[in-house]
Design brief:
heterodimer; A: 163 residues; mainly alpha; 3-stranded antiparallel beta sheet; 3 strands; B: 134 residues; alpha+beta; two-stranded antiparallel ribbon; 24% strand
Chain lengths: 163, 134
């Protein structure tokens, strides 16, 4: 019963974690804006969210993804994608979602290089305008997730208290 | 909380940029310095930035890996009345290019501001996260 109660919270919580991860990646990009040879990186939110929710449908990439992303940067040894969802082989199996997910320190498979918009002499691919725009966009969406969590927790609380 | 490492990342960038600003300041201060008796004038210095991994793969900071002296030839100005002039009447001055240094300074200060902004945003977001459910 509590699982039903906190489903919405769980979803937004995962979104919040990915937003925080992305914020960290964008901060690294901005910090390395003057480093020669640094390649700008980003997290594809759609794919990251899909793998966090345990569904492996990360194929359709034409849905409003403004960023065209290049190959993932990880080597195949550490960055191979392993689904943490449990396999249901019988209709009576209770569908379970692993709480481990792929977030936290293990989010290497979502980290990708951004496509450089303007070439630079020192091979740095950070586009400061784009990074700043992404950073602001990401912080607004982070706050949106916070607001959603706040709202649903208030709803649950008022339902419990019955006032 | 993973966003705390933003402070480390942006902090490293801020200290690297302020070191760059320091180097620009010493270059500009020595732009008109003449060579001493040994004939070696001030050579303009430039910082070299390098990425440093910080904890996880997602966050990478920056550091000044080395400070290199410019290998451009020193400026030689004809000024026979100058006390430091050599036998031909030339004075050796530093090889600092003031225009380049000014551009460097603007770039460093903009990058510094950017990173301060990033830290401020991260702080606001963390504070709002701490107030969750209140």
């Amino acid at each position: 019963m509590f699982a039903n109660l906190t489903n919405a919270l769980d979803f937004q919580g995962k979104a919040l974690t990915i937003r925080a991860d992305r914020q960290r990646v964008l901060a690294s990009n901005i910090a390395n804006a003057d480093t020669p040879g640094y390649a700008s990186r980003d997290i594809n939110f759609k794919d990251a969210m899909a793998s966090a929710l345990g569904s492996n449908s990360s194929t359709g990439s034409s849905l409003g993804n403004k960023l065209t992303l290049a190959q993932p940067q990880t080597d195949n040894v550490s960055g191979s994608f392993v689904s943490t969802a449990l396999a249901a082989t019988h209709p009576n199996h209770i569908p379970l979602q692993s709480t481990l997910g792929t977030l936290g320190n293990n989010n290497a498979e979502e980290l990708q290089y951004t496509t450089p918009s303007q070439p630079a002499m020192d091979n740095n691919t950070v586009d400061m305008d784009q990074e700043r725009a992404n950073f602001v966009d990401n912080s607004v969406r982070y706050e949106a997730a916070l607001t959603f969590i706040n709202g649903s927790s208030k709803t649950i609380l008022s339902a419990i208290q019955g006032q | 909380m993973s966003m705390f490492s933003i402070f480390n990342v942006s902090g490293s960038a801020i200290s690297a940029q302020s070191q760059r600003l320091n180097v620009v300041a010493s270059n500009l201060a020595n732009a008109d310095a003449v060579a001493g008796p040994d004939g070696q004038g001030y050579k303009s210095r430039q910082v070299v930035f390098q990425t440093v991994p910080m904890g996880s793969e997602a966050s990478s900071g920056v550091k000044v890996s080395s400070i290199q002296e410019s290998q451009e030839p020193l400026k030689r100005v004809l000024n026979p009345s100058h006390p430091s002039a050599d036998a031909d009447g030339y004075v050796t001055e530093s090889n600092v290019n003031p225009v380049e240094e000014m551009v460097n300074m603007i770039s460093a200060s903009r990058s510094y501001q950017n990173n301060v902004e990033v830290m401020n945003t991260a702080k606001t977001l963390l504070l709002k996260t701490l107030q969750l459910g209140q």
